[in-house]
Structure to design on (179 residues):
């Protein structure tokens, strides 16, 4: 996978971080700097670590699926992209207000499940793991941080468009995997 594709993957995976952080930014009025950095660090850490776990897990099955790996990458990205788009238009709780350690870990884990699955596709495409993990983690950190501060400045913004954009990027990456 090229650096450009990794950056687009990072953006797509970071959309959940951006949206969650945006909702937190709408809510918090005190200790904003501390809360934004704690949230962004957690999101970036989880998004950077989960592909490593997915990559390692895929190593176990790679020899069995090697001949079909490009189609598996296609399927993974297509399903993730469609999931992003469908979830963008589902009703969600708007009042997620929690910055304690339990909540940070929960939000970090919940937003990075997709990165775990994407890690398997990184293995199938023989993408350098540490570079990919760094780009994904750093991208998620920056998107989370910016999402928090955008949320602080804008009180109503259609998050569904952000999530849909992430889904579209993943579908484009899926098509690119088989071309």
């Amino acid at each position: 996978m090229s650096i450009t594709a990794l950056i687009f993957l990072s953006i797509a995976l970071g959309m959940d971080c951006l949206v969650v952080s945006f909702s937190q930014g709408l809510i918090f009025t005190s200790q904003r700097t501390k809360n934004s950095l704690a949230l962004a660090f957690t999101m970036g850490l989880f998004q950077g670590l989960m592909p490593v776990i997915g990559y390692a897990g895929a190593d176990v099955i790679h020899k069995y699926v090697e001949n079909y790996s490009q189609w598996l990458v296609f399927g993974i990205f297509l399903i993730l992209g469609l999931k992003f788009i469908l979830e963008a238009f589902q009703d969600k709780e708007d009042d997620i207000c929690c910055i304690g350690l339990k909540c940070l870990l929960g939000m970090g884990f919940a937003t990075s499940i997709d990165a775990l699955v994407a890690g398997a596709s990184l293995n199938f495409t023989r993408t350098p793991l540490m570079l990919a993990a760094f780009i994904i983690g750093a991208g998620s950190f920056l998107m989370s941080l910016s999402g928090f501060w955008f949320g602080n400045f804008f009180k109503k913004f259609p998050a569904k468009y952000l999530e849909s954009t992430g889904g579209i990027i993943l579908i484009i990456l899926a098509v690119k995997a088989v071309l």
In short: Residues 3-178 form a domain with the Growth Hormone; Chain: A; fold (CATH 1.20.1250). Residues 32-65 form the longest helix (34 residues).
